[in-house]
Amino acid sequence: MKSLIIAFAAALVSITGFAQTNPTQIIEDFKPSVLNQPGQEYPQVNSQGYARFKIIAPHADSVSVSLGLGGRGGTRLKQMPDSSWMGTTEGPMDEGFHYYDIKIDGGKFNDPGALNYYGSVRWESGIEIPAHDQDFYSLKNVPHGNVVQVLFPSPSTNTSRRAFVYTPPGYDGKSKKNYPVLYLQHGWGEDETAWSNQGRANLIMDNMIAEGKIEAFIIVMTYGMTNDVKFGGIRSFKIEPFQTVLIDELIPYIDANFRTIAKSSHRAMAGLSMGGMETHTITLNKPDVFSYYALLSGGIYTPAEIKDKSKVKLIFLSCGSKERPDGVKNAALALKEAGFNAVSYVSENTAHEFLTWRRSLRELAPLLFK
């Protein structure tokens, strides 16, 4: 557990929003980000992956943009003749989704031109750098499932807690089919909205189901931060409160209120980053609850940790190529040699970011519930 926490903390520190290449000539084909507020022209992105920002702050002395989880990757803006502030990133950014915020004279603000997403324990601005393979998570004219909010009773926390549940196309029709369930956890500082908003999990599922690539299943997403953990204090996180919420409260609620196959053989748990740490610990603590395990930039399993491999149908390990891919690959090989059905996946040219995890879900989904 200690080594997993250290690896997770190291991953947070290493996050960056910039790609490695840095073209010398910027192509002036900038267009508004697809995540802008309606009618807003800025921020903008170009075909090379550069981002350009414009902030109206006529009386400010300094304005900059901090990109990435934790605010890394600063871009200083320059005041224009019309008193607005503008600037372009020094290099192209990684493809996919990125959090950012605006610093005005030392204060932290959201960009009024962009939509907001919950990350780093606050609502932050979001920008999308178009990916060459974005088709798999794009909105298409296919049958769509639903993402519904549920409030479930939680005696252990003396309140009602929230979860979002994805039900696949056809769930609400005449069929009375029961479905397997994936419990999918967000990362540190995010919440239960992350996988459907930033991760586009519902669109990934809709598209893959429409293409016949996967069998339909339900996804449940809930808040995993049952403790008040500040950035840098991850070592103090205790799994027991969330484990109680998930195992003793949420799963029984889902099985009672949705058409699930209420068996461990048809239940999976996965998580990104800190959600992977939660997945790792809970699946080992409760081996009779889940049969499919997936850690997305969230550490590894070792053969010695799993006492009864007959209960485990799949172990999926993934990360970005800019993280620690050798660790993921080697762990999967060791698990295979020990007789486990283990699969590794490395997302090319991405780091600890949502394109890594979108791609990971795309690779994981067809392997589940076989």
What does this structure look like?
The two termini are 29 Å apart. The chain is 22% helix and 27% strand. Residues 2-23 have low confidence and may be disordered. The protein is built from 7 helices and 19 strands. An 8-stranded mixed sheet has the order 12-13-15-14-16-17-18-19. It is of the alpha+beta class and 370 residues long. The protein has 2 domains: 10-130, Immunoglobulins (Immunoglobulin-like, Sandwich), CATH 2.60.40; 136-367, 3-Layer(aba) Sandwich (Rossmann fold), CATH 3.40.50.1820. GO terms for molecular function: acyltransferase activity, transferring groups other than amino-acyl groups. Residues 1-19 form the signal peptide. This is Enterochelin esterase-like enzyme. Keywords: Signal.
CATH-wise, what's the superfamily of the largest domain?
A: Alpha/Beta hydrolase fold, catalytic domain
Number of helices, counting only DSSP H or I runs of 4 residues or more? 7
The H-and-E topology, N to C, reads as: HEEEEEEEEEEEEEEHHEHEHEEHEH
Number of domains: 2
Helix content: 10-25%
Strand order of the largest sheet: 12-13-15-14-16-17-18-19
Strand proportion: 25-35%
Distance between the termini: 29 Å
CATH class value of the largest domain: Alpha Beta
Unreliable spans are: 2-23
Strand element count: 19
Overall outline:
globular
By CATH, the topology of the largest domain is Rossmann fold
What is the radius of gyration computed over CA atoms, rounded to a whole number of angstroms? 21 Å
Class derived from helix and strand content: alpha+beta
Oligomer: single chain
Protein name: Enterochelin esterase-like enzyme
Pfam families: Esterase (PF00756)
Organism: Pseudobacter ginsenosidimutans
Signal peptide: 1-19
